[in-house]
Amino acid sequence: MTSKITLHKGDLPAGIGFPNGVAIDSETLGLKPHRDRLCLLQLSAGDGTAHLVQFDGHSYDAPNLKRLLADAKTAKIFHFARFDVAVLSKYLGVVTQPIYCTKIASKLVRTYTDRHGLKDLVGELLGVELSKHQQSSDWAAESLSDAQKHYAAADVLHLHALRQRLDAMLAREGRTALAQRCFEFMPTRATLDLAGFEDMDIFSH
To answer: What is the pLDDT of residues 130-144, one digit of tens each?
Structure first.
């Protein structure tokens, strides 16, 4: 896939449309939202384009992004939405909805494996090999390298196609409604994580 990657500072420009939903991923300084700040947000319309929004760590006043994230008419497609939704809540103050999570969908239908990472999903279902060489990277750098930009873009460029394949599998196994209920619970799960319950199963005895 030949992709077009555009970097923006602080917010998504007005006028960019996502008629078929928006694929979203985030890059942070680590995996603890309370400690590790949001540095980059990647978005794609599923058409081979990727928009990267870079934050300086001082201002998260991004009205266009916030409007998009809260828009009930635009589906937000994530891989591991639990983390990204928590990060977006903490730093942008937005409850992201509606949500589709390819990792949750995978766990509901790919019960023949315990490999549900994005690299595994894209490789099996789409026949695409993703590079993860920039996974551990300084995303707070003032200037991102071309390798970082391409890595970040790759995390959203394939999510629309994954959703289509996983939707067919969910329908085949009769688990579409179950998946939808899991997606609807995601903002609550993210809120529990931010409240300090990330390592506790509150539903257990």
So the answer is: 977 666 789 999 999
Q: Is residue 205 part of a domain?
A: no
Task: Specify the number of domains making up the chain.
Answer: 1
pLDDT tens for each residue of 35-66: 999 999 999 999 999 999 999 998 999 999 99
Structure tokens at 130: 């993703």
- Residue 37 falls within a domain, yes or no? yes
CA 128 and chain centroid, separation:
18
What span, in angstroms and rounded, lies between the C-alpha atoms of 129 and 72?
Answer: 33
pTM, whole model, 2 decimals? Answer: 0.95
Strands ordered across the beta sheet of 49-54? 4-9, 49-54, 38-44, 22-28, 76-78, 99-101
Q: Tell me, what CATH number does 36's domain have?
A: 3.30.420.10
